[in-house]
Amino acid sequence: VSMNFAEQSTSQDPALFHVAVIMDGNGRWAGRRGLPRPAGHRAGARAVRRIVEAAPSLGISTLTLYALSSDNFNRPPTEVSALMRLFAEYLERERRPLAERGVRLQVIGRRDRLPAALRTAITRAESATAEGRALTLRLAIDYSARDEIRRAVAASVASGTAPLGTAPLGTAPLGTGAPDPFAAWPDVDLLVRTGGEQRLSDFLLWECAYAELWFTDRLWPDVTAQDLAAAVADFRRRDRRFGRISA
Ligand code: FPP
Fold first, then answer.
1. Whole-structure pTM value
2. Is the CB of 20 under 6 A from ligand 1?
3. Could you tell me the sign of the dihedral formed by the alpha carbons of 125, 73, 50, 212, in that order?
4. Active site includes 72?
5. Per-residue pLDDT for 50 more than 90?
């Protein structure tokens, strides 16, 4: 059963791969310094810049970052809105540098609950970077893997087409304004989580079916290019069998 999915690799070149990151620990990083939590998120944004810059030289072709889960909406509204502003600022500021470095930016997750300013920043950044081929950077904002799967199944049933992955569906599911998920559910090769916890937290559940998992106690704002390189080196030593026996 697993073979179909195992063979559906992220890219044609096995040296290139998809890394997904759960960027945890911003709040604790701030707390330890006696700073408010948003200061931790701003430091987290600087770590995002470091990691995005390091990714292409490590062979990473797609990098998906968990910026805000749908469940994060249950945090205090002030923290959620500070994050929304930070994302918009990041996109406005980084749009050109990303385009110049050949980074294609995409946002996954639902968009209908995002502030208009952020939606605009997303659209602009996506179109300014659409030609990028050095790296695909995907930011997950208001993202829930379960919700995405649920909507895809519901859209599939409603439109009367064949289920998951077997027929292209042209339309966004149930009018959330999100892109069609069937078109863009690439397998994750390596999942990294910082901040000491070891769980998936509703991130890329389908795509992580055969992901290698790598955890570090390091808090996200402290993460460096060396940490990413260490994770990748560990990943390259792993024997990925996809349910088969060793070669
Ligand atoms: C988890 O730390 C992190 C988040 C909920 C937000 C992730 C956001 C960033 C890294 C900011 C910048 C991102 C971009 C794309 C510009 P936490 O607050 O749950 O930390 P804690 O577990 O220590 O409280």
1. 0.88
2. no
3. negative
4. yes
5. yes
